[in-house]
Specification:
The chain is α+β, with helices and mostly antiparallel strands. A six-stranded antiparallel sheet has the order 1-2-3-4-12-11. The longest helix has 40 residues.
Length: 245
């Protein structure tokens, strides 16, 4: 019995030591991965990297991690226009089946899904905020975006009738969707500005617009989008996503 007790104590101590070593190793790996991702993606701040699953060391021995979560507070995405970016807030991505090279210099996830937010103030930069003539003597521009409820965006349009010096602000509810890796805003109905009839294609040059969101980390792409209180919430997904290297 004494020998059995000693054996049990040794097993418990070794198990506890293994857990400690495993947690120290995963903490170190998370820090290294975060630094590598910051450098690779040219981020302003260090992202959060959370390696899931236990034990970590046996996953490393197998050359693959089951689940890695990455969080980036602010990310400047490309818009397709030289020198112009759009800020993505709270980008969170869940990477599955992450395999890494023998020297740990690169890692690729089999699949990735995630979420992020684009504020209305950022999306407003895409809309026409300079007066544009939509009919003789009538100009219009977008002056605000906000949550319209039920997944819609409220687009505030200011029209000016130059001959009368009258300004009028009207709002329309718009649908938002992802089309060819672009966030597309499309008015459900058109605003009436003044008493002059305005052709639909003319007024839609103001109310409808698209925003390219490109070159997200690892090559993930836009999947879905919906309006929310603080901005548009986007879903992203990808396969063969490169975390580093």
């Amino acid at each position: 019995m004494r020998a059995l007790r000693i054996l049990l104590i040794v097993v418990v101590v070794l198990g506890a030591l293994f857990v400690i070593v495993d947690r120290v190793a995963v903490h170190f790996a998370e820090g290294e991965a975060a630094d590598k991702l910051k450098s690779t993606e040219n981020l302003a701040s260090t992202p959060d990297v959370d390696i899931k699953g236990f034990p970590f060391l046996t996953q490393v021995a197998g050359g693959s991690l089951d689940d890695v979560e990455v969080g980036i507070d602010d990310y400047e995405a490309e818009t397709g226009k030289a020198g112009q970016t759009i800020r993505i807030d709270d980008l969170k991505a869940d990477m599955k089946g992450v395999e890494f090279s023998g020297d740990y210099s690169s890692a690729t996830a089999a699949t990735a899904t995630g979420t992020a937010t684009v504020s209305y103030s950022e999306l407003l930069k895409t809309a026409k905020s300079e007066p544009t003539e939509v009919a003789p003597g009538i100009t219009a521009k977008v002056v605000g975006l906000s949550d319209g409820g039920n997944g819609k965006i409220k687009v505030a349009v200011e029209g000016t009738v130059s001959s009368l010096g009258i300004k009028q602000t009207v709002s329309v509810l718009s649908s938002v969707s992802v089309v060819n890796n672009k966030v597309e805003v499309h008015a459900d109905s058109l605003p009436k500005l003044g008493s002059t009839a305005i052709a639909e294609d003319r007024i839609r040059t103001i109310t409808d617009f698209q925003q390219v969101i490109d070159q997200l980390p690892g090559g993930i792409k836009l999947d879905k989008v919906q309006a929310a209180p603080d901005g548009v919430e986007i879903s992203v997904k990808g396969s063969g996503v490169r975390l580093a290297g």
